[in-house]
Amino acid sequence: MIEKIYDRILHRNPGEKEFHQAVWEVLESLEPVFARRPELLDESLIERLCEPERQIIFRVPWSDDSGKTHVNRGFRVEFNSALGPYKGGLRFHPSVNLGIIKFLGFEQTFKNALTGMPIGGGKGGSDFDPKGRSDAEVMRFCQSFMTELYRHLGEYTDIPAGDIGVGEREIGYLFGQYRRITNRWEAGVLTGKGVLWGGSQARSEATGYGLVVFTAEMLKTRGESLEGKRVVVSGSGNVAIHAMEKARQLGAVPIACSDSGGYVVEEKGIDLELLKEVKLAERGRLSAYAERSGARFVPDGRVWEVPCEVALPSATQNELDRDDAATLVRNGVLAVGEGANMPTTPEGVRVLREAGVLFGPGKAANAGGVATSALEMQQNASRDSWTFEHTEARLTEIMRHIHDLCHTTAERYGRPGDYVAGANIAGFELVERGMVAQGLI
Ligand code: GLU
């Protein structure tokens, strides 16, 4: 039955391989749910869940500093609003296409449900490549992008945020243009804003911090902690850096991270202050960090070769495959927590699961970012701003709640310790209840 539904989804969405992968992973987990509640299949819930409520594709023309005109494609997929307004980030990266945005929007729907906050799922972005572009070029691109997108947004409708290639700088330009077009100071229409102008404390830290809190909770179920553990992270952006920071605060040693040019290893621990300077402030390369810190730089290598107890893939989708998983297992990894969205391939997940490695899927483990976006919306709605400590305490509480929800749901379905099943089933049950309660729309 599930195969038949999946087959129809494949044919309706040709060529969208990341979307197919994300859908199949969820459907596979739901088999025990359908066995207990076959009526769900009659209501075509899966078909409804896999069809976005609305998909917007638009032209984004802009001119570079030399006056040359470029055309990019903009996307916003408003996936599901059963539990709240569409919420999810924008990704600016040359690899972006409809299939990638749909996979991200689909995942986001379940992730957002797991946070327990009133937010639906959506995602957007563009195939624009911000790498090597001046601030003025990025600004003109963002202004053009928002000139079309603004009509689809609103604090009660759809609230974008950042993702790969979209950080505080881009959110600033997007917010400025939204405000200019609408003549409304509507803080709650975008999250990830600067703290000075309606942003939340701890939002930039949230995804990485939350990931490590989730991973520590997984370790706790086996009587383990992060104390003294070697942590290897892929990526060296916002998520990766703050994951390493929280890991260090909890007594672990972050020893390696990567970017598209290679990876660095530093047995005594990565110098996070220098890394922030190079990667976040200067938008530089990891090789430049290695030159300044004296760390070993391995160009073009796989960061998963570095032996560790905890691995946190925090760069992009399908970056940890079967061979990488086998290497990690051989080197004695205890836990893998996904900071990125779907960074582990299905074969990679299988290898880790069969070896008994604790595995926290992205839609649960990296939900701290969007959860803190929902906290930003709360602050905006009440025209308030909370302290860092208060915001972080709320984030920690939410991550523990997500962990426990996934853990108990997996147990309830006879799959103890299977966080993939736990996250998919718990997320599905929440969204499904919202959809059924609101009738056939
Ligand atoms: N892009 C992030 C995610 O995947 C954050 C989304 C948001 O804050 O809305 O969860």
UniProtKB/TrEMBL annotation:
Domain Glutamate/phenylalanine/leucine/valine/L-tryptophan dehydrogenase C-terminal per the UniProt entry, residue ranges: 200-439
Family as reported in the entry's similarity comment: Belongs to the Glu/Leu/Phe/Val dehydrogenases family.
InterPro entries: Aminoacid_DH-like_N_sf, Glu/Leu/Phe/Val/Trp_DH, Glu/Leu/Phe/Val/Trp_DH_C, Glu/Leu/Phe/Val/Trp_DH_dimer, Glu_DH, Glu_Leu_Phe_Val_DH, NAD(P)-bd_dom_sf, NAD_bind_Glu_DH
Binding sites annotated in the UniProt record for substrate: K87, Q108, K111, G162, S373
Record-marked site positions (Important for catalysis): D163
UniProt lineage: Bacteria, Bacillati, Actinomycetota, Actinomycetes, Kitasatosporales
Gene3D superfamilies, per the entry: Glutamate Dehydrogenase, chain A, domain 3, Leucine Dehydrogenase, chain A, domain 1, NAD(P)-binding Rossmann-like Domain
Protein keywords: NAD, Nucleotide-binding, Oxidoreductase
GO biological process: glutamate biosynthetic process
Transmembrane segments: none
UniProt name for this protein: Glutamate dehydrogenase
GO cellular component, one term: cytosol
Binding annotation for NAD(+): T207, N238
Subunit structure: Homohexamer.
Annotated source species: Streptomyces radiopugnans
